[in-house]
Target: Enoyl-CoA hydratase
Amino acid sequence: MLVAIDDADGVRTLTLNRPEALNAFNEALYDATTVALLEADADPSVAVVVLTGTGRAFSAGNDLVEMQARITDPDFASGEHGFPGMIEALTALRKPLILAVNGLGVGIGATILGYADLVFMSSTARLKCPFTSLGVAPEAASSYLLPRLIGRQNAAWMLLSSEWVGAEEALRMGLAWKVCEPDDLLAEADRHAKVLASRSIPSLMAVKQTIVDPTRDEIAAAAKREYAQFEVLLGGIANAEALAEFADRKSD
Model:
């Protein structure tokens, strides 16, 4: 099961479960996560959604093997929902979303934080937006969401530098709400999720709607700009060299 699902007291916990690949998103995981988000949104018994990862990573981002296949394989088959479908599901999610970042978060494993209502990070977790090191553009409307969430300069550093940001730095920036010891992370996220889940679900949804609705058009516009830039850069010289270097490391 690529996404493990657990329900308790109105809280649905979705756990990315591809630990052998550090929970990197391939087409199958994008599809499974999208379906899980849509089902949680539609289920009247679910008040709050918690998203976390199995193993030492939250998510290592896009599966670079599949990224290379997308460039080189004319028969590459996209998933039913894929990356765009998951972003649309995150944008449309009506229930509060809590992230429990248990380990490294790279690419979409970092930019997905822009869709969370509350972010809990393990003290040992780290985040990276590796777009410039991969020779590509931002993704997931991060060029809009991150400046809005953490300010232009913090966002510029994350999106331009491809450097790691630790949990305490993420907390200082406002990218994380609470930093927890690794063994306490899920319990703390769940404790807060259950506080929210004890409230009226229609009221929770109304609050989230009033917070998120003003941003939905901007998210869609930013994603469209990013897709256009990504399409230009994907397979370009810098991207091809970065993917070839990754493939060489993987084969060693």
